[in-house]
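Entry 0007
Protein: GGDEF domain-containing protein
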Amino acid sequence: MKLLRKYNNLIIITVFIVILYMSYNSYKRTKEIIKYKYEAQSHLVENSVINALENANAAYSISENILNEEMENYSKILLEEYKNNPQIGTWNLDEIKNQMDDYDIYIIDSNFKVIKTTFEKDLDMDFSKYPSFSKLLKSRLEDNHFTADKMDISSNTGEIKKYSYMPTPDHKYLIELGIDILDRYSVLKELNVFSLARNLVDKYQYVEDICFYRFNEQANNVGIIKDKKNPIDINIPKHNKTLVKEAVLSNTIKSRVVKNSKFTTTTKYIPILTEKKDGKNDWWNSFVIGITYSNKEMLSEINKETSSFLINIFTIATVFIIFIASIIYLLKKTEYMAYHDHLTGLANRKAFEEYFNEIVSRRKSKSKIAILYLDLDNFKYINDNYGHEMGDKLLMEVGIRLENIVRSNDKVSRVGGDEFMILLTDIKSENDVSSVIEKLENSIKEPIDLDGKTVTINCSIGLSISSEKGSSLEGLINKADISMYRVKNEKC
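Output (structure tokens):
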């Protein structure tokens, strides 16, 4: 019990620290799980878009040969028409288009401008504004061969199309055919990356935007396409163009982080580069995916977890304090019961013995210890005539009077029945003890009021004093007990 009293504060603090440590570790793990969840979902979003593009490319390549053959045949028909009537301005393209399924017809002049087309939105489009593409068109105009591109995105509508080019024999015009692949193969609409991008933005609140960048061969010119309703926009911030260019030239993901006062946005630029048969990059059919994430939602979730953690800590601390207070109360109560007489509240034999050992251990060499053994005279008479309840009250009053006489460094103990022991410390002579005994006897014999009844009682006190060499407690108690009986017998 003494050992427990000595270390109880340390034990309490240790237990509380362990609980806090476990709670904090749990909170840290939860934060890591939240971060991991958003990282995993970010990878899922990126992979979804990349896979959509790759699946679209794979699906379109299946129909590549069929479309190429169709486009070449239709181009030859148009060349034949040109031989018969080189006055292109007089052509009825709508009538010709009816013979060519889903294809749109474009006539591009030597200035790389669309001068006639079945697709009104592209009429008067000037490709000379795009140096790299106009350079490509020039090589095709000067050539004598049919050329077909892979999947492309219409500059004015964002629709996924495929285009072919056939120069006229006099190299004045370039006949272009275009087809909306989704109109020809409606099943491929499910591979629409724009629709997927919108769905992902709607589904995940931390995804702010998904867009697609187009670029020229050296990535000097960059345009952005967000969906089918918006044309390519080349008026984009300089830092976007720079990062797209770096992503293309290095073929690695680039990122831009913008820190606001309360949250951070991160934009990833992911290059999706396709290759030609000769191993060179097919830049006209390549993209950079721009995905912008905001950690606002993640921070909100972490803040909620932090608030929950603080509330839990407060709750744990409150419950712990109440629990510890209850434990301390019970321990003190148990300790009190283990070291005190249940009736008078005086120290019991065990507490008396521990206090004696403590006094002996720090006693000065010349000081002495006295043991007084006190027994009430005729206490049985009080019990027999007034009842045990009155007898208990008498014992309680006697205990109070004894403690009022002795000093604070002395110890009074009830050892059973009507017997008490008193430990007197720092005794200089036997006269000091005699004076205390006299005071105790005078105090005890004063009348005691017990529920309106006045009773008097005397006591017999035996004495033993330790020698300078020291004496055992049992020896001193036995000597005092014998002395007490001698005093009692002398009264008879």
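Curator remark: The chain has three domains: 2-63+188-300, 64-184, 349-491. The two ends are 44 Å apart (CA to CA).
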